[in-house]
Structures are given as structure tokens and as C-alpha cells.
Amino acid sequence: MKINKRECRKFADPGISMNRNHGLLHAAEVKYIVRTAVKNIGGKRLLVLYIYSREQAAEGIFQPVWTMFQSRTEHITLSYREDGSTRWSKASFCNLERDYDFSRHCAFYTVRDEERVIRFCRQGKCRGFTSLYHLQSDIREKKQRELKQKKEEKILVRMKPVPALPRNIRKIIDREIMPHYLFYTYNRKRKDMEGFCSACNTEVKVTDARHNQKGLCPVCKAKVIFKSRGKRGNICDRETLQVIQRISENEIIVRFLKIHYQFGEERHPYKSVYENARTFLCWNEEGKTSEERFYYSYGGRDSLTPWKPGTRPVFNQWRYNFEADQAGFLYEKNLDQVLKGSPWQYSQLKEFYLADREPLYVISYLAKYERYPMLEYLVRLRLWRLAEDVVFGSHYYGSSDSAFNPNGKNLKEVLGLDKSYVPLLQRVNPGLGQMKLIKSLLHAKVELNEGLLRWCGDCGISRTENVLVPLKHMTPHKMMRYVNEQYAKLRRKNPYQSSGYYKVEDVLTDYRDYLCMSEGLELDLKNSFVLFPTDLKKAHDKVNDISDKEQALVYDRQIQKQFEELNEQYHFVKYGFAVLLPHTAKEILEEGQNLHHCVGSYVKKVVKRESTILFVRKAGEQDKSLCTVEIHNGELVQARCYKNEPPSPAIRKFLDIWKKKVLHAPELTVAA
Ligand SMILES: [Zn+2]
Q1: pLDDT-derived band at 443, boundaries 50, 70, 90
Q2: pLDDT by residue (tens digit) across 572-624?
Q3: Is the dihedral of CA 411, 389, 327, 358 positive or negative?
Q4: Ligand 1 centre from 573 Cα, in Å?
Q5: What spacing in Å lies between the alpha carbon of 203 and ligand 1's midpoint?
Q6: What pLDDT sits at residue 233?
Q7: Ligand 1 centroid, distance to 283 Cα (angstroms)
Q8: Can you give 562-581 as a three-state secondary structure string?
Q9: How far is the CA of 269 from the centre of ligand 1 (A)?
């Protein structure tokens, strides 16, 4: 039963006065004087504390500042404001005022006032204020305990429907998830060495084994890693396995198992499997999903459940934490059944995982599928790299991205390519970068070479200009051979090396730069010594190390060349506007001066074919600057007018049409 506030009000001010000669009223160190009473209020025995301001009392004003009503299980305080209004509060005695030493500035009016408190609070031999403090903190702690218990009981109820793990899970972990070893004693003289296989737990004879080499156990045929006993050291493996289970009509759970295997002793390895996190995913009738996470807490022995809501706290966000990492392998054997009738029934999660059995974060896949249902088609078509880029890429899919539209309703809308391209795409397995490349090649009317596309996919090459420039001078086959050779030779072998290439794409970037400069320098690119320099890095640096005068000449020639090559492709007239390419570097500089923007600084990028600069002008005044456009990697990336202003609606309308008809013109059907 709660303290009855209305009844309490009747006892709030006892209307007593104090003896003005009482020494306490004149003790400057005392701020408040406390008088007490024990009363039966609303059927409850309550301790009442009347707290007066000493200064007011000294002036003859005997109205309490606070009246506190204390029962054995709770307390409540009526405070009086200066304007005469009152307010109830639940603050404990020591928090009535913002004074960490509050009770020290209070004094009981008489000894009997204090004794009443001591008797009521029953806290041993404590002083009055101390025993009140103890009683109130006991009550608070008890309440907190009850609250915690309530929360934990809720979690217990939440965990109740979680079924047992699949019965064969340990076997699966052993057979399919964790690596196995074939330990052998190296013997130079003997062909068949003594060995032991951890997969089948038997002695085997080993021939031709090399330390850390992968192979098969000659007895059980399991995949093993050979380990020479002399070199092996301690072997510890740890992995994560995700198990999905159905909880109810509209709920599944993803459970995260942590696995540790340690081969201290070959025959008796230490094996431990435990569950350390759970995420519930449920959906409503409209198919809208929500998630609820829990993690296993190793501390807290006085709790009803080890499961805590939320994500596992980590000390350092930037350091790898195995316990908190939720990416891992997937138990896929029950998926068809578990996902049936769920929003993910057609998500192809199983097929996606089985394609390479690489660790993944299942929930991220499920979330991406909800946003981009076309994942289903990509996986069904075995376009793995595209699917992977959609699931794990941090790409922002804007509407301007012509290479790929994840919101498309059918394959043609998604890929922007005709069905007839599908067999080629399946063989090439492009990522998002290569999709873009394929389209740019089609725009540039370059015949799609399957070997080239596959190479681009495998090496992650995505910059169109890097492929287009060399292809002007050679066949795809020769380009790949040369770039592969240079990469093998000039690859950066360790991070301490000061120069060298990290990626194949870097080689291509330098090669494109070299070829553009060589064109401008009018070097004889028919000569294979010029076309395929022995050391690309050196040759590249050499053509770039030229005098300013020479450079100006090279730049102009190169831009002129581009005009001849590309103007026909980009030129377009409509609605009284025209698009044209610059003839010289000077024209680009002048455009920048006329329009007061920075296009002048793009000359180098244009020369190296990283960007294409186009002028939009009035069809009737084609030598008057109006709007400048940059094309990068097949996309219109910016359009700027006078003082960097965006283009007017009329120009924008014109550019939209130009984009549709010229820049992203529909692809021709492939004849593959
Ligand atoms: Zn074996």
C-alpha cells in the first residue's frame, strides 16, 4: 500500500512554534532544524520529519521548508515554494538540497526528535541522520534489484522458445568448418614419414609432404594442412558459426557460435564451442522486419540470465575483437525450412553462401535483400561479384549511376543491359566496377572481348579510360600480356618498399598516362620498343619530365587529338543548345576565365583522359562560354555556369536529353 498523499497533507504543517531562546536558533553553522513525529496516517505508521529553515525560525517564522513522510518501504516529501505553492518529490533526505553535506547542516531540535528517527529506522547504533540515510538507501537498492529482476525475467521469457542447436552441429563444425592437420615427423632419408591425421584420428604414412602445404589425408581423404612436427609450434584456430532457427510464425533467430580448437596435443586437441550472441528477427503482416540483439555476458553471477540486451560492449572500437565479431560461417543445412514463409524465403542466402563458403555476416545479407530484392536474380544468375558488391559494398546507389540500378524491377532495369548479355556476364562474373566498364566499352563502340572482361573482373579493373587508351594501339591480348608482365616485375612486394605497384589497376593508370604523353610527344607508337617499354615506371617518369614549353605543346596536341576522336560521339544540338569538345588547352583556360570557375585546373586531367570537359553553348553563339560539363568514368559529374552557378532549367533539360540520347545511349544487342 502506498503512502496516501491526501492524508499526508493534513499533517504537513503541525503549526508548532519554537523557543526563540533555544541556542540552536542562533547557531550559524546550522542551516536547517529538524523536528519529528511518528503518526498513523491513512492506516500507516509513518515517521514525519519537519524541516525548518533556521534563519526563518530565528525571525519567528515556523513553516517547514520540507515535510518528509517515511514508511518502512518508501518515502515522499512535500516541499514548499516561496510563492506558497507545494510540490511532491521522491528525493531522499540527503538529496533534498544540492549540498553534498546536507545532513551535516541539519540538526534535530531535541534529543527526542533524534531518538524517534533512530527507533523508527532500526539501523543499529547509528546517529539519527545516518540511520535515515541507511534505511533510504536500503529501500532504493531493493527497488533496483526488483527492477533488474523484472527485466531479467522478461529476457528469460524471450529466450524460452529458442530450440536446442541442431543435433549434428558438433560434427558439422569438425568436418566442414575447422581446418584439420596432418602432423608428420620430417625425415630426409625416408620417403614415407610417420604422420597423424586430426580429421580421422589415425596414424598415416606420408609421402612428399611439405610444411604448411594443403593436401588430402591418404586415409580419410579429408582436406588437411601438413604440419612438420619440428616446426609446427602451437596451433590455435578460432571461427564463428551462425545458425538460423525458426522461433515462431513470424520470427527467426540468428545464433552466433564461437569455436576454439587448439592442437597442443595432437591426439587430444582442446575443442570448445559456445554461443555468445543471439539476434531475433521478426516481421509483421506487412512484412516489415525488426531486430533485437542479445549478447552472452560472462560476468554477473547474481543474475537470473547471462543474456543481456544490445550489442557486446568493446573497449576499443578500432581493435579486432573476436568475441564481438559476428561475421562467420553459416550452418546452411536447415535454411530452406527455416526461411520458408518468411520475408527471406526467396533471398537465395543459401545459394549465395554455398558459392564460396566464405565467412559473411548473415544479418547484413538479409537486410540488403529487403532493400534490394533483385539480389535474388543476381544470385540465381550466378553473378556472384555483383551480388557481393550489393551485399557488402559501401556503394551509394544514386540515380545517376547508369551502370547498375538496384531498384530495378527486372533484369534489364537492374543491369541496363539486354537479356542477350546474360551468358557473357555469367562467364565474366563482373563486379559493379566492371559493369560500368562494360557499358563504357559499348559506348565507345569497342568490341567486348571476353578474355579482357574476365581479366578486368579478376584484377578488379574498373577505370574505363585505363582500358580504352591502350586499346587504341593494341589488341586486348597484347595489353593484358604487357600489363601482367610489368606487374609481375614492378609489384610492391612489401609495404616498406618505396616504389612499385600495389594493384594491376595502378600499372594500367601509369600505362595510360605514358601513352597519352607519348601521343602528345608524337613518339612513334608503331615501334614496339616505344609501345611496350621494358620498364614502364621509368618510361612513364621520363615522358612526364619535360620542359614547360614542351608540355604546353604536348597538352595542346593531345586535346586536339581528343577533339578529332570524340567530338562526333559527344556533339549534339537541340532546343537551341549545343555540346562541343575543346580544341586546345587554351580554350579550356579561357572557358575558366570567362565563367570565373576552375575548369582551367582540369587541363592535365583532360590530357591524361581521366576526365572529359565539354562546353554547352547556345547553338547560335558557339564561341561564347555558357556552361561547362565534366564527364568522369562515363558519368556527368558536374555542370557549372558563370561563377559556379548550377545550370538554368533550360540547360538542365537539354543536358537530360543529351545524357539519355548520347551519354547513356541504349546498348546495342551483343552478338556473342
Ligand atoms: Zn585422415
Answers
A1: confident
A2: 888 888 888 988 888 888 888 888 888 878 888 888 888 888 999 888 888 88
A3: positive
A4: 73
A5: 8
A6: 85
A7: 45
A8: HHHHHHHHHCEEECCEEEEC
A9: 15
* H helical segments located in 81-218: 111-121, 128-159, 169-172
Each residue's pLDDT tens digit, 504-528: 888 999 999 899 888 888 888 888 8
Q: Residue 179 Cα, ligand 1 centroid: separation in angstroms?
A: 12
pTM for this entry: 0.73
Residue with the bigger pLDDT between 599 and 671: it is 599
The alpha carbon of 184 and the centre of ligand 1 are apart by a number of angstroms equal to 12
What is the rounded distance in angstroms from the CA atom of residue 656 to the CA atom of residue 639? Answer: 12
Residue 221 Cα to ligand 1 middle (Å): 6
Return d(Cα 196, Cα 298) in angstroms, integer: 36
Other Cβ atoms less than 10 A from the Cβ of 97: the count is: 16
Å from CA of 196 to ligand 1 middle: 8
Residue 119, C-alpha cell as written in the block:
527507533
CA atoms within 13 A on the CB side of 49: 30
Q: Report how far ligand 1's centroid is from the alpha carbon of 183 (Å).
A: 11
CA of 195 to the centre of ligand 1 (A): 10
Distance 167 CA to ligand 1 centre (A): 23
Question: What whole-number distance in Å separates Cα of residue 519 and Cα of residue 200?
Answer: 64
CA of 217 to the centre of ligand 1 (A): 5
Buried b (16+ CB within 10 A) or exposed e, 488-523: eebeeeeeeeeeebeebbbbbbbbbbbbbbbbbbee
Q: How far is the CA of 621 from the centre of ligand 1 (A)?
A: 82
For residues 278 and 293, the answer to whether their CB atoms sit within 8 Å is: yes
Q: Do the beta carbons of residue 414 and residue 404 sit within 8 Å?
A: yes
Q: How close is the Cα of 205 to the center of ligand 1, in Å?
A: 11
Residue 222 CA, ligand 1 centroid: distance in Å: 6
Contact (CB, 8 A) for 307 and 295: yes
Could you tell me which residue, 542 or 401, shows the higher pLDDT?
542
SS percent in the chain: helix, strand, coil, step 5: 40, 20, 40
CA–centroid distance, 168 to ligand 1, in Å, is 20
DSSP one-letter code for 395: -
Q: What is the pLDDT of residue 396?
A: 53
Tell me the C-alpha distance between 71 and 139, whole Å.
10
